[in-house]
TrEMBL record:
Alphabetized SUPFAM superfamilies for the sequence: Six-hairpin glycosidases (SSF48208)
Domain of life from the UniProt record: Eukaryota
Gene3D superfamilies assigned: 1.50.10.10
Organism of provenance: Clonostachys byssicola
Keywords: Hydrolase
An MF annotation (GO) of this entry: chondroitin hydrolase activity
InterPro entries, A to Z: 6-hairpin_glycosidase_sf, 6hp_glycosidase-like_sf, UG_Glycosaminoglycan_Hydrolase
Gene Ontology annotations of biological process type: polysaccharide catabolic process
Name recorded for this polypeptide: Unsaturated glucuronyl hydrolase
Family: Belongs to the glycosyl hydrolase 88 family.
Length: 490
């Protein structure tokens, strides 16, 4: 992989020095810039700023938050929003704060003139607070398990960058709200109160049913973080119980599956398990967004990789590390095994696309022969693998650290090659010193950074939301770049 050519490891006793990824700057006459350069491009920053400014029109303070960008139809290229009570509301302010962290800590990676850095910081900080502030009130929600997604993406950087006491208080409140959904008999946190969005028989009664989905693993980070800052060990205990329960109930051992260089068990994932709330027994297994109950929905697999990697970093329990690796290896195996139609030729005659996952690893290819992908699954999984790389490097297992770093970078690089929106934006400094985002080519607008994300394509669903830009695909792409900076790899 071209952009990895400068990654090196130098061992000295128990320490390791990891060379930086060479992200080539594009200049006239130089070789074409590397795909991973796009992680730090003006295009990304300009798109986020433009969307943040534009979607405040008749929406300030915000009550509607960017969600999807259709690739076809009457709203093509424009964000379609969801209400503040929807689970994705935190991702857009999260993208703003991830960029703001770069502006504060890594200004040389902003790709802007030095005199514009302060204006960019000011613009991002003001927009970040504007989009984040209304979400404080959501911390008291007790009807959702998604409080980690809703809060941690932007309240955590507010606390860590600015020592914002209100943000930390909101995190703690949200964690206690999430804990209120914990059931000790099940050993897990209730995710959905009911399941009514497919044509399968509905699940309604909370007295008789207890629905837990694989996505929930990514909300445990909220409980661990709040416990660490408040000393409330019941929060972290619940998170650990939940993670252990899902190993038994949502993960499927794949004893015949293997990848060279890995000797542990591989795991696939199911999506939905319905428990008896009194006994903790399993009543039924389903999917809501994947192909079927026995398939491996790619984003569900990605959520599990990320969630167990995060859980290991908090607990240092190697059970969670082994499970996260087994999940990552199965994700990579299914990418390796994908049909040849996933590969496309690039301008230099090479192929890309094998490591941009299909929406469900077991779903058939569409009738038109064009694979339906989910870029959000790929970049979420890559973030989990980056955590695994860091974990193994910390354990002195540098071969495994390099393994997951290379895998993560491969996924992100191919995602950029295949699915980066060609409609680009640029930043402009106004006469008042404000930064705005505009189309690089006038009239060519696609508000998301990435295309080809699929929320759900279950045939039994009342709606198939497929092949579009998606706010959390962009967030995990941006956060991946920021994490490379934190690790000194870019």
């Amino acid at each position: 992989m071209g952009s990895l050519h400068a990654i090196t490891n130098v061992y000295a006793g128990s320490t390791v020095s990891v060379g930086k990824i060479r992200l080539q700057s594009h200049t006239v006459g130089a070789r074409q810039k590397e795909p991973l350069d796009e992680l730090f491009s003006e295009n990304i920053t300009a798109k986020i700023i433009r969307t943040a400014q534009k979607h405040l029109s008749n929406n300030n303070p915000p009550s509607q938050y960017p969600h999807i960008v259709p690739q076809t139809g009457p709203d093509v290229g424009q964000y379609v929003s969801k209400g503040i009570d929807f689970w994705t509301c935190g991702f857009f302010p999260g993208s703003i704060y991830s960029l703001l962290e770069r502006a504060i800590k890594y200004p040389t990676q902003l790709r802007v003139k030095e005199v514009e850095v302060q204006s960019l910081r000011s613009t991002l900080e003001n927009l970040g607070r504007t989009w984040s502030d209304p979400i404080h009130g959501e911390s008291r929600l007790t009807n959702t398990h998604d409080l980690g997604f809703i809060m941690m993406t932007h309240m955590k950087p507010r606390w860590e960058l600015f020592h914002d006491e209100k943000a930390l208080s909101t995190i703690t409140t949200a964690a206690n709200s999430l804990y209120s959904r914990y059931n000790s008999a099940v050993g897990a946190i209730r995710c959905w109160d009911e399941l009514v969005w497919t044509n399968a028989p509905h699940i309604r009664s909370m007295d008789e049913n207890f629905i837990v989905i694989i996505d929930s693993l990514c909300n445990l980070d909220l409980l661990f973080y709040a416990a660490a800052h408040s000393g409330s060990s019941h929060l972290s205990d619940a998170a650990k119980h939940h993670a252990r329960t899902l190993i038994r109930t949502h993960l499927r051992e794949e004893p015949t599956a293997c990848r060279p260089g890995f000797s542990g068990m591989l795991y696939s994932t199911g999506h939905v398990v319905n428990f008896c709330p009194q006994t903790g027994g399993i009543k039924e297994k389903r999917t809501a967004q994947g192909f079927d109950a026995n398939s491996t929905w790619s984003r569900g697999q990605a959520w599990a990789i990320l969630g167990y990697a995060q859980t290991y970093t908090w607990t240092k329990d190697e059970t969670f590390l082994h499970v996260a690796c087994g999940l990552a290896e199965y994700f990579l195996l299914r990418l390796d095994m994908a049909p040849s139609c996933v590969e496309t030729y690039t301008s230099d005659g090479t192929t890309s696309g094998r490591y941009v996952p299909m929406w469900d690893f077991d779903a058939p290819v569409e009738a038109d022969g064009i694979p339906l992908r989910d870029t959000s699954a790929g970049v979420a999984a890559a973030n989990g693998m980056l955590i695994l790389s860091q974990a193994f490097t910390g354990l002195g297992r540098y071969d495994m650290g390099k393994r997951y770093l290379k895998a993560a970078l491969t996924i992100v690089e191919e995602t950029i090659l295949c699915s980066l929106a060609s409609e680009r934006a640029k930043s402009v400094t106004t006469g008042d010193g404000d930064i705005i985002g505009v189309d690089e080519l006038e009239g060519s607008t696609f508000e998301a950074v990435l295309k080809n994300a699929t929320v759900s394509n279950n045939a039994l669903g009342y709606a198939q939301i497929r092949d579009h830009g998606l706010v959390y695909a962009d967030y995990y792409l941006i956060e991946f770049g920021t994490q490379l900076l934190r690790l000194g790899l870019a």
